[in-house]
Amino acid sequence: MTVPDPAGSRAILIGVHSAADGLGMGALPAVEQNLAAMRRLLTDGTVWDLPDEHCFSVPEPAYPHEVLDEVQRAAAEATDTLLLYYSGHGLLVGESQDLHLALRGVHWEDDCLSYAKVRTRLRQSGSRARRTVVILDCCYSGKALNGEMGAAAEEHQGDPLAEQQELAALVAGKADIDGVCVLTASAATRKALSPVGEHYSAFTGELIHVLSHGVEGGSEYLDMTAIYDAVSARLALRPGMPVPQFGTRGHGAGIVIAPNRAHRPPEPPDRAVNGSAEVRPAHAVPIPDRGLAPVLATYKGVEIRDRQVLLQFLTQLTADERDADV
Length: 326
Description:
alpha/beta; 7 helices
């Protein structure tokens, strides 16, 4: 399990931070920082080490074709992994409440970019990408308030389990792409947040942290499940933050997009816990048998192994002591 091959991978990063006054949506200053940071992570070796020409940034698009043309080009070129990231306003349009992505200067809902069209480009005939990852940092309502992508305190409605099941079906339906993982900043009934004064939006800020610093105790590489779990856990520590969601097709949950920068290989078995070499007690080390008689006595470092020699030595030592006493 390794990170995607930079030569065969492509990324499309779309960000719309300007206000959509015609739709009642304010500016999102953090989105501009989101886009710059995500590009940096993808190209500086932190995630994939993509060549600059394989990472397509689309800042502030005003028309759908500006995005769709780049998506089509990337999908046609990618042979390994294709990643699409969008940060900005999101809204649900029409009776069917289809997901649309806001563009610069839009005045009407149907001027926004339909996610269904993006999905079609990702699935276009001739696309050779083995894996597709879609990351959407946007809300699904279409109204921003007080520097947020949406209201911070929307009440949950209905049974939570039923709502979760309905959400899973909705996400999977909107992500109907073979071999894909779609990671979103919030549920279909909630709004993603971009708190006033923060450098990044809430969701992308935690995503950047996980990709940059890794997951303690995790495996060598981060797949989408590990990333989702880590980002969700970090957001759960911040009151009022929506819960990220993700849906997959095929083996999408196991798609790897980054090495785990917090991974530490296990200590060798012959090492102590503190990393120093284990010291064995002397008595545990066997003494080789050199075929010598046992030592009967030692005098000033001289070993006496013969009984007759020992008796002679003791006799002489006693005589010497007696003479010394005279």
